[in-house]
């Protein structure tokens, strides 16, 4: 049996804590416990859900110092970032609490009966939504709070009325255990069953596969690598009874920087972009991995400005030695596929220096290996002869969480084509700033065409994340007692 | 190359018309033509879409007599049913026209910028929806108008801003050609490209597979058999770039008839149910294939009433000889799997008599073969000892377009459990009447957990069918000219 070992991300040394991986029996017990509470939680009202979510947020805040210390040891993300991420996590929990209390999960659409023959006449119909049931939630390495045990997937599933079994990320086992212990205390205080939020863990893929295969699991939610997500999606589809699988798989997030924008504010944009490339050592699914520019003097000036801005930043250790190795391998693959190194700064230990590479548009479009995400502080500059080539580069990317377009303030045919193409391949299109930093709002869309997401019609961040766990059901000629429940399932 | 031959459904004899199956080059040309118009149609406004949809509806009505005659020859569904289906089809077209004109496809969600640090502060964000692009639409055998060339899938995709390439059903090739000729005339009159609504056809699976594999196809919509739908879904998932596939695969549509309802109005319910079992010779995805009843005197009285009501009805020819053979094979499979024949009436030629079969709940739960849909006028009566067994039977069904529950007018624990379980496995739960007849309304949900649908979170009938073809995109800090487009893509 594999053992999970908590490692200090800065030294790679064990912190002294370790846990056995969950056994098949453990996984079965966690899913059965979640299933046992599914009907009751699904029939709970909005206030009950909101109370749980708010108490979970308060419990995180009450243990802030200990949690951040623990997270920093295991991830090296640093106290400011981790405090900010904790704020975001509690904000999410309270936002979904508000949605539950407002009745969002219980929203109904009424079609009163219309007399007469069809197609005009019809019986009384009411469209409601029912919670899917136990959700398998796969935590991410790079957001130990916001996309982990009590992250957005868990918060939205609970608000929707679904129990959750979390597969903790092996990169931060001590933190996952600590958060789960807090959760259990909150559940006990509220008299809720422990199985409402279960936790399993494992260092390899076996535990996750066993979890998504379990017949009582009703949906999966995943944030992580393309390889891991596609493997789990294949498992979800291969079940005797396939289930929805919401996989957010990362992206290369092109930034199209037109000469107009670079001329107007190149220095400022270079600083902003350098910060985004290196933020959290580039370990973000929204990290800008691609810079698409036209052959123009402003472009060359900008590359120099970007280099200078990157050189001024301190290297930052990566989450795990494995991620560090994968970064080096990813850069090597880009070079092998025909990219040239423009500049790199020296790294320190587990902290790689940022890398700038470049390639021509035609080569980029021809070589699939150039379009693979490199998780870390690298950026591939794609040189385009004209707007037509920029469009071709975007279409070759095909799917991304975000596309950023700088310099389309005026309504021209070229700008329209750029915007249309950007919208065609991305879930979010930015016209200023950088893609890192995903706001938790009503209008957010965090997802995108394949390979960015396995379910591009849905979002894993923002209010609409709730919809992933509620299936529409139409009640026809419902009896009065059922209508009186106002959308709360039985 | 396979030739498509139009057959008279009553005699099985050729009507004299035939067409070559679409070649690979035909399919490629149709998809390329659809792709060529995708950007313009996606950027069209609601009035343009509404005008097209309304003219298509009028064109169908103007040729009503010829269309119904043609459809009746190829399907034997009869003039009253086919006229009704044509009404429903034009109603659908006009309903989606109204939605487009009202601006439903262009609905936006605005989050104005909020100053301050995240997570509270955020940039200006607007959530819009973009049309997916060319949709491959697979027509059904049993609804030659409403789920065929100009059916709900085509209407909703066009309203969403997507071109369509229809794979016609080989059971009614002459009708499909006739409708497509009408369409082309309407497109020409409006000055729209012919490629906006393409048609391909083939007798085997090859044409459909080539269509869903085409790299420029952006989504699939299918109504038909479980086998055909799952095969196409597998193709959609196996593409280098997987795409959404909306497959509506049929169901066995349990009717739970509790003794209270049977005692109160058994004779009336028997007549209604007999009509539903035999409607269109049982060739509906919402045909009630399962009758779940408790061991009670009222149950036995009802079975006699149902038998009498069925005996009074005339047998009706099936759509094709192949469907007739599959019906016989399906009944034989139920008998082999342990069901007993209760009663059957004599058939005539291609018109099978209705069959009533029965089996105990335990056997039903143990034998997967008893849960397979038999497309045609048969019904399997499942005898249950108690409500617990009824719940077990429903859970064994697992997924269905509908569940009907008669006799839960009062709020009791048993009734809640029945409703909860019915809602868990179905897209629509009825408390009166019968599942055949799917109203086209705002609240309709035509879909359900696997195996009823490959995409149970979506509906193929009703207003929400539009949502299947629109992917959310968030615009962050959009320039003024783009915001001024009010949700209409570039």
UniProtKB/TrEMBL annotation, chains A, B:
Keywords associated with the record: Oxidoreductase
InterPro entries, per database record: Ald_DH/histidinol_DH, Ald_DH_C, Ald_DH_N, Aldehyde_DH_dom, Aldehyde_DH_Superfamily, ALDH_KGSADH
UniProt entry tagged with the keyword Transmembrane: no
Gene3D superfamilies: Aldehyde Dehydrogenase, Chain A, domain 1, Aldehyde Dehydrogenase, Chain A, domain 2
Name of the protein in its database record: Aldehyde dehydrogenase (NADP(+))
Residue ranges annotated for the Aldehyde dehydrogenase domain, each copy included: 18-415
Biased composition (Polar residues): 12-21
Naturally occurring in which organism (per UniProt): Hydrogenophaga bisanensis
UniProt xrefs under Pfam families: Aldedh
Taxonomic placement: Bacteria, Pseudomonadati, Pseudomonadota, Betaproteobacteria, Burkholderiales
Region described as Disordered: 1-21
Keyword Transcription assigned: no
């Amino acid at each position: 049996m594999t053992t999970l070992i908590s490692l200090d991300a800065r030294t790679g040394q064990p912190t002294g804590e370790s846990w056995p991986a969950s056994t098949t029996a453990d996984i079965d017990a966690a899913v059965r416990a979640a299933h046992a509470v599914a009907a009751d939680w699904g029939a709970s009202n909005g206030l009950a859900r909101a109370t749980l979510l708010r108490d979970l947020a308060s419990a995180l805040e009450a243990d802030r110092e200990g949690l951040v210390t623990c997270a920093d040891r295991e991830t090296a993300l640093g106290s400011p970032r981790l405090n900010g991420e904790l704020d975001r996590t509690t904000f999410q929990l309270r936002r979904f609490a508000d949605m539950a209390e407002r009745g969002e999960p219980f929203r109904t659409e009424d079609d009163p009966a219309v007399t007469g023959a069809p197609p005009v006449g019809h019986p009384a119909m009411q469209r409601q939504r029912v919670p899917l049931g136990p959700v398998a939630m796969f935590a991410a390495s790079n957001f130990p709070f916001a996309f982990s045990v009590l992250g957005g997937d868990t918060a939205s599933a609970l608000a929707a009325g679904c129990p959750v079994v979390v597969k903790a990320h092996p990169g931060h086992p001590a933190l996952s255990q600590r958060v789960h212990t807090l959760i259990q205390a909150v559940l006990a205080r509220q008299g809720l069953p422990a199985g409402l939020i279960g936790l399993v863990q494992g260092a390899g893929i076996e535990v996750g596969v066993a979890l998504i295969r379990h017949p009582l699991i009703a949906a999966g939610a995943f944030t992580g690598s393309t390889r891991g997500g596609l493997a789990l999606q294949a498992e979800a589809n291969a079940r005797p009874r396939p289930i929805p699988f919401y996989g957010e798989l990362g992206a290369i997030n092109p930034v199209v920087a037109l000469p107009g924008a670079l001329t107007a504010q190149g220095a400022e944009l270079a600083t902003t972009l350098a910060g985004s490339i290196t933020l959290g050592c580039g370990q973000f699914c929204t990290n800008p991995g691609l810079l698409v520019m036209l052959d123009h003097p402003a472009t060359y000036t900008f590359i120099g400005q970007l280099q200078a801005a990157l050189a001024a930043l301190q290297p930052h250790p990566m989450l795990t030695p494995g991620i560090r190795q994968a970064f080096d391998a990813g850069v090597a693959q880009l070079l092998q596929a025909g990219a040239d190194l423009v500049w790199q700064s020296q790294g320190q230990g587990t902290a790689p220096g940022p890398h700038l590479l470049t390639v021509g548009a035609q080569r980029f479009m021809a070589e699939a290996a150039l379009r693979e995400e490199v998780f870390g502080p690298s950026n591939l500059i794609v040189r385009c002869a004209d707007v037509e080539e920029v469009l071709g580069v975007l279409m070759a990317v095909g799917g991304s969480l975000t596309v950023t377009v700088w310099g389309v303030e005026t309504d021209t045919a070229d700008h329209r084509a750029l915007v249309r193409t950007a919208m065609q391949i991305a879930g979010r299109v930015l016209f200023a700033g950088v893609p890192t930093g995903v706001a938790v709002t009503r209008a957010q869309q965090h997802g995108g065409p394949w390979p960015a997401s396995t379910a591009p019609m849905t979002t894993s961040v923002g209010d609409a994340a709730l919809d992933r766990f509620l299936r529409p059901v139409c009640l026809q000629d419902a009896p009065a007692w059922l209508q009186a429940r106002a959308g709360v399932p039985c």
